[in-house]
């Protein structure tokens, strides 16, 4: 069984022991197979691999010819969010959206507490991660996000008083607060441009709604140019849809260890794909360049920048001042 870290650097076996409480790979294997058998009534083989990210872990297991994914968290502060995300994903799957819907336990639950963890089981979706160099794939990703937003807007969980749906600050205030912080990664000139654009941004955006929260290549699976899987709804939140579209366009090429920005043409392909399904309002379209520039500047790292985020932000600034 292979033990890996998804984003972090370090010794995965040490993380398995200190963060997740397993003496080694063998004890992790026994715990996973026993939990799946007891809660889901499914007998699985030893995991092929376990991947850890923060307080979360994933184990790929096989039951006969079927490949399944066990996901669990040891971060109690996230347990309610994970349960909410599991119910939401199950609902989206029932609407025919390309998500990896959780499999219910023997008791009918889609997310369970198990030995100090929050745990779920789902089928593995076969596919490759989105290739932002393929215009058809990028457009399909935009179109899929539009269909996802349309479904989420009518989701019966939308009116829940659950804490994960607490509304954020108004969009204008979020950008203003960033400007007021005078981030060292952006120049005074860049902040002045954002401020002038913000002053011209209109009121009257459509209401906030549930959005995915982390829609980018690492969470988008495709077969050919068709999106077959949208993964990881754990970062879902309330936002304006144009906010998610702009953030996703800037981060679209992000994979697990490749944080390179995409070009302006890729961002436009993504927006065009979205609008082919759900056109934006005039107000949203006027916010689009403000948000793309803001996110481009906000994601410039404060230390080394080997992937060129700073250069991409400068290029976007040039587009904005023409």
Sum up the structure in keywords:
six-stranded mixed beta sheet, Aminoglycoside 3'-phosphotransferase, Chain: A, domain 2, Phosphorylase Kinase, domain 1, 2 domains, three-stranded antiparallel beta sheet, 10 helices, single chain, 322 residues, alpha+beta
CATH architecture of the largest domain: Alpha-Beta Complex
Shape descriptor reads globular
As laid out across the biggest beta sheet, the strand order is 1-2-3-4-6-5
Largest sheet entry: 6 strands, mixed
Tally of DSSP β-strands: 11
Estimate percent helicity.
40-55%
Count the helices. How many? 10
CATH topology of the largest domain: Aminoglycoside 3'-phosphotransferase, Chain: A, domain 2
Mean pLDDT: 93
- Distance between termini? 55 Å
């Amino acid at each position: 069984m292979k033990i890996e870290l998804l984003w972090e650097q370090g010794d995965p076996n040490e993380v398995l022991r200190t963060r997740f409480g397993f003496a080694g790979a063998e004890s992790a294997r026994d715990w996973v197979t026993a939990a799946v058998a007891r809660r889901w009534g499914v007998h699985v083989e030893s995991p092929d691999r376990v991947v850890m990210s923060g307080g979360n872990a994933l184990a790929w297991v096989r039951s006969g010819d079927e490949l399944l994914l066990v996901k669990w968290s040891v971060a109690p502060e996230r347990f309610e969010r994970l349960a909410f995300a599991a119910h939401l994903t199950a609902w989206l799957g029932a609407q025919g959206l390309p998500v990896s819907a959780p499999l219910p336990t023997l008791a009918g639950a889609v997310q369970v507490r198990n030995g100090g963890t929050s745990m779920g089981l789902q089928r593995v979706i076969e596919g490759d991660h989105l290739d932002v160099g393929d215009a058809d794939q990028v457009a399909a990703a935009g179109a899929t996000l539009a269909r996802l937003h349309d479904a989420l807007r009518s989701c019966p969980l939308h009116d829940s008083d659950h804490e994960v749906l607490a509304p954020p600050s108004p969009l204008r205030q979020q950008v203003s607060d960033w400007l007021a912080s005078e981030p060292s990664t952006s120049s005074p000139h860049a902040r002045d441009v954002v401020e002038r654009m913000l002053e011209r941004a209109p009121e009257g955006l459509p209401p906030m709604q549930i959005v995915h929260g982390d829609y980018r290549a690492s969470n988008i699976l495709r077969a050919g140019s068709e999106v077959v899987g949208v993964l990881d709804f754990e970062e879902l939140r309330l936002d304006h849809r144009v906010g998610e579209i702009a953030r996703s366009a800037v981060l679209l090429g992000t994979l697990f260890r490749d944080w390179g920005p995409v070009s302006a043409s890729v961002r436009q392909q993504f927006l065009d794909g979205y609008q082919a399904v759900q056109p934006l309002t005039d107000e949203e379209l006027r916010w689009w360049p403000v948000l793309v520039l803001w996110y481009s500047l906000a994601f410039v790292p404060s230390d080394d920048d080997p992937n060129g985020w700073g250069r991409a932000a400068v290029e976007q600034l040039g587009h904005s001042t023409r």
